[in-house]
């Protein structure tokens, strides 16, 4: 019996040895990053967005601010003017570079404001069930409104400026964020750890901050990217209609200048390059959001 026990004990590893032999498991963030790295479209989209942000930050180092008049009027793309010139002889490349700053600033600022409003409404609707019906009606009504005509009306009444564009775009962008956050929040709030936090006496604010918001954080990250692209499109549309800031350049303002001068159809370079910049940003943000969504989903990962 002694030999048998000794043999069994010697052949059975201890709990500490078993735990030490198992490799440490990767966190969800590490798994998401590993899956995202395997997506070439996601990496390329992230590189494009980083490049646009660097161009916006270093616009003054890349090109002089386009102002005044030039000698070469409506000159096509050349070594001297990569993107050609407009009807006043101003360099279109410089306009696109400086327009990147305003377009991205307006897009990010409007996106952040819309995300804040949408997250507050969505989380409140998911967590406080008695407020879900009222907040749901408000979101549904907001989504049913004709967005573009109302944006034009509000921007025209408030006056053209960058701050006006940010507020107007955010006010008509938050309902989509609220709906997505509410859907995700409805899956997080019934979780056992949320119920346990209530049982131990956690306050509503503490539970939302510690448990609900981390649960909807992936959806918020995707919403930031998509809302930014929509905000850039909205800014370009409003600026093209003459409702942007007349004292600053943006991609929509370049198109507005080309339309107002009559060179919209005759000088193709005045519209092609700012339109390509808008298209590049929108496609990059969309692909980045899709790649991140696939990377964080265990089924597709």
UniProtKB/TrEMBL annotation:
> What phylogenetic lineage does the species belong to?
Bacteria, Bacillati, Actinomycetota, Actinomycetes, Micromonosporales
Where are the bilayer-spanning segments?
41-63, 104-128, 148-174, 212-233, 272-292
Protein name, per record: ABC transporter permease
Please indicate which superkingdom the organism of origin belongs to. Answer: Bacteria
Give the record's keywords alphabetically. Cell membrane, Membrane, Transmembrane, Transmembrane helix, Transport
- Tell me where in or outside the cell this protein is found: Cell membrane
Q: Which SUPFAM superfamilies match?
A: MetI-like
Q: Where is this region: Disordered?
A: 1-21
Keyword Heme part of the UniProt annotation: no
Keyword Transport attributed: yes
Name a GO CC annotation attached to this entry: plasma membrane
């Amino acid at each position: 019996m002694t030999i048998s026990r000794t043999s069994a004990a010697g052949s059975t590893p201890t709990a500490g040895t078993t735990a030490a032999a198992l490799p440490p498991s990767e966190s969800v963030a590490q798994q998401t990053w590993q899956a995202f790295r395997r997506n070439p479209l996601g990496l390329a989209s992230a590189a494009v967005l980083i490049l646009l942000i660097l161009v916006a930050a270093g616009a003054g180092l890349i090109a002089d601010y386009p102002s005044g008049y030039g000698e070469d009027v409506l000159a096509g793309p050349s070594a001297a003017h990569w993107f050609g010139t407009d009807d006043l002889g101003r360099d279109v490349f410089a306009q696109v570079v400086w327009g990147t700053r305003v377009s991205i600033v307006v897009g990010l600022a409007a996106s952040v404001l819309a995300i804040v409003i949408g997250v507050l409404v969505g989380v409140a609707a998911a967590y406080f069930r008695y407020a879900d019906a009222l907040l749901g009606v408000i979101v549904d009504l907001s989504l049913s409104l004709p967005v573009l005509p109302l944006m034009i009306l509000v921007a025209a009444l408030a006056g053209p400026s960058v701050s006006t564009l940010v507020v107007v775009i955010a006010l008509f962008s938050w309902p989509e964020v609220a709906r997505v956050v509410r859907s995700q929040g409805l899956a997080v709030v019934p979780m056992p750890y949320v119920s346990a936090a209530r049982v131990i006496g956690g306050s509503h604010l503490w539970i939302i901050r510690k448990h609900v918001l981390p649960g909807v954080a992936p959806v918020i990250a995707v919403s930031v990217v998509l809302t930014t692209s929509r905000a850039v499109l909205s800014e370009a549309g409003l600026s093209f209609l003459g409702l942007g800031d007349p004292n600053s350049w943006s991609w929509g303002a370049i198109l507005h200048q080309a339309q107002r001068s009559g060179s919209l159809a005759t000088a193709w370079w005045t519209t092609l390059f700012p339109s390509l910049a808008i298209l590049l940003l929108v496609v990059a943000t969309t692909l980045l959001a899709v790649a991140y969504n696939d990377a964080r989903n265990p089924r597709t990962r």
